[in-house]
Amino acid sequence: MAAVSLAVTAAVLMGGILLLPGCGATGPTDGTDLGRNRNWAGAYMRVHLVPEQKPQLGEYSSRSQEVIQRHVEWAQQASIDFFAVSWRGMGSYGHTSLVDHVLPESSFDTIQWCILYETPTVIEGDPDASTINLTMAARDTLIRHLLDFHDNFFSRSNYLHIDGRPVIILRQSRRIAGEPWIALNAVRQAYMDSTGGGSYYLVGDEAMWGALAIPNTDRIRAMDAITGIDLGVMSQHDGYPQGTGFINDLTTMWHAYSAAGQVPEPPVPLIPMVWPGFNDRASSQIQHPVIAREVTSGTEQNGSTYGQMWIVANEQIGDPAIVLLNSFNAWQQDTQIEPVADNGNGLGTTLPATMTGRSRYFPYQESFVENTVIYKGNVLLGAIYEIWYDNKPPSGY
Fold it and tell me: Whole-prediction pTM value?
């Protein structure tokens, strides 16, 4: 399929005024390997616990047939309907792993999946970029990727479709600067013009906390649905949720974004996010606030924070009724439900305190998989899925 430039489309949408490409970085080329931060290398909190709590499958490679099969099996046990596969660019380790290893595995055909487009990494070349600039060059990159997805992913029988349209989740869409409605609709129009068919179903990552939690209806109206993936933890949420007000703040935030989605015409539904807890101190090497997996301190392990998040999510579910789980296996933020190995310490540990924030961490084995199927109900449930390599980087990496 021939490459398509967005310049003409953008000029039409701007009433005939041709906008020149903006200045600044447009991100790495398609050949850049952007998966290098998805290895273990001690960058997850549970390997530092005393005693350590490693994944039940060990520090694995996502290219392993056994790992892929086991992940699908656990996902089905949890009644997860689809994986949102984290994607960091053409030529990245994750892309190659997906194309050459994950998709060819027959067991993966039994679960639906979609692309979680890592916008800051792909467009700006920095996963922590504070601003995403959809310059003309950046838009061309995005449309080129969408057309490649159209040719190679969207027609697969198990690629997730909503209302007959392939789903793309746009991570950190809330960081898109300038005039996001114009930019995103230019991309959408160019995609439809090039394919000669319908559009995709775009899920924006819009929700955020605190003073910044002012829904941007200009961006929201460019989406087909909105969610909140990377909800930066505020300092007042550090610790056990019963004492921090976390659950009440979460309820208020989801309600604000649900209401904002009713403003555009047609309305843009909310897809609430649930997660079992949060701790990125090992990967960030910063003493960030911790969201404990238990609502209150004690020695009883039941994942009560996760259960409370599901209660809140069920009150905010839109139409279609979808919930996203962050995550199946994002160990670097300790949001995973993937089973941890049994280390024989049923009482859990708060050591070292610099890593745990004095919250207690249990070797939960398969309990979060088991709880997910109980909480889910009748919603369509997706889970963020990361591509990992073991601690032996691939040849030529």
Answer: 0.90
